[in-house]
TrEMBL record:
Its EC number is 4.4.1.22. Belongs to the Gfa family. Zn(2+) 1 binds at residues 41, 43, 109, 112. Its cofactor is Zn(2+). This is Glutathione-dependent formaldehyde-activating enzyme. It comes from Donghicola mangrovi. The lineage of its organism: Bacteria, Pseudomonadati, Pseudomonadota, Alphaproteobacteria, Rhodobacterales. It is an enzyme of class 4 (lyase). It holds the Pfam family GFA. Residues 34-181 form the CENP-V/GFA domain. It catalyses: S-(hydroxymethyl)glutathione = glutathione + formaldehyde. The keyword Metal-binding applies. It comes from the Bacteria. Zn(2+) 2 binds at residues 62, 64, 67. Pathway: One-carbon metabolism; formaldehyde degradation; formate from formaldehyde (glutathione route): step 1/3.
Length: 212
């Protein structure tokens, strides 16, 4: 994860805009009919380029410790797109798997550390068929902006003071980003519905699913 500005977090009043995510002060403006664009890592020379042929959905801030964050940010900004729409087009040889044991297989540039795409290989996972991307890596205009904040309490693990959490949640709400300590109700319902369907089709098998 990115370097944290601990001074910004330990002051009497944390600089919320500075530590939440840099894109929050200028969120992307969603464009009707937007069909995707190019994601680039942060290497000046020979960046990894990923072509995404789809608008993103469920874009949100994520406070978990696994998603890639820009330097100084407590949250990542992460969305999903159909995996068929994702193609590595340049310098794919620089991509490496961050943690082979993670449910989401996150591929990062070995030189700059930026995560380009997260893929779920387990076909039983509720989000199988979707890839996770960070739309801020694109200069194309029209991506869906973040709609909520997930795994908010996890920012304490990154060093954010627990006593400031009510202020953090208030601040996220004021930005129109409802804070949740797991995923949004819509996505949690999708996960539970998927588990019910799996239990119905395979009644004797235990189904265990972790979102991250
Ligand atoms: Zn790079
Ligand atoms: Zn996350």
């Amino acid at each position: 994860m990115g370097r944290l500005d601990t001074e910004a977090m330990t002051g009497l009043v944390p600089d919320f805009l500075a530590v939440i995510h840099p894109a929050i002060s200028h969120p992307s403006a969603q464009v009707e009919g937007f069909i995707g664009g190019l994601l680039k890592c942060q290497c000046d020379k020979s960046p990894v380029v990923v072509s995404v042929g789809s608008q993103a959905s469920h874009n949100h801030l994520c406070g978990c410790s696994l998603c890639w964050k820009p330097d100084g940010a407590l949250f990542s900004q992460v969305a999903v797109v159909p995996r068929d729409a994702v193609h590595v087009t340049e310098n794919g040889d620089k991509l490496g798997l961050v943690d082979p044991s993670a449910v989401i297989q996150r591929y990062a540039c070995r030189d700059c550390g930026v995560h380009l795409v997260g893929r779920i290989e387990a076909s039983s996972h509720p989000f199988y068929g979707l890839d996770f991307i960070h739309t801020e890596l694109s200069t194309d205009v029209g991506w869906e902006p973040p709609k909520f904040a997930a795994f908010v309490s996890s920012i304490i693990e990154a060093g954010f003071p627990a006593a400031e959490m009510p202020n953090m949640r208030r601040h996220l709400r004021s930005l129109g980003l409802e804070p949740y300590d797991c995923l949004s109700p819509e996505l949690m319902d999708a996960i539970s519905s998927h588990i019910v369907l799996q239990k119905q089709s395979r009644p004797r098998q235990r189904v265990e699913v972790a979102a991250e």
